[in-house]
Design brief:
Radius of gyration: 17 Å
CATH architecture: Alpha-Beta Barrel
Helix content: 25-40%
CATH topology: TIM Barrel
Strand order of the largest sheet: 1-2-3-6-7
Largest sheet: 5 strands, mixed
Distance between the termini: 34 Å
Order of helices and strands: HEHEHHEEEHEEH
CATH superfamily: Divalent-metal-dependent TIM barrel enzymes
Strand content: 15-25%
Structural class: alpha/beta
Length: 180
Amino acid sequence: MGRAPSPPEGISTEDALAKAVRILEQISIVAERLGVKIGLEAHDAFSAASTVARVLALVPSPHLGIVWDMLHTHRMGETPGHVWEVIGPRIFNLHVRDARRVPDGEGWQLVLLGEGEVPAREASMCSGAAGYEAGWSWSGKALARQPSCWGRSLLFGHEGAGWLRLSARASAALRQAAPV
């Protein structure tokens, strides 16, 4: 489906991963001291959950986890089931958006949730089965409404580049208060 961008010219993938690990080890110590969590987003050279899993295995801090951008793991050919298998316990935030391949196959176009190829419903089902209760975020440009066809539905108009962040518990409470 896709290929993650390569490290800058002259740097091997292994050297880039080692550098990321060194930096994240230092940051995780500070995060622990401050009582915060750091989320590495599945994006760019870290688009594949299998790559992120290698980094997380080398930095076992509970203060370091992943922001799972479903679009990028999907571009890398990874299913939601695979993502949960390799990084599920370390997911701090689910970044939901949808896209479809452009006709020339050389890129992706963001579309409204439910109108593209990203398996958001399957990811939602995996997260529910795993008991996931941390944060969810939606890219504002791609969200006008969530389709009611996939369990974790909410209706929100959200324009611009901002994100809507809700925990799974807040999402459930809102569904009960205003069913779709």
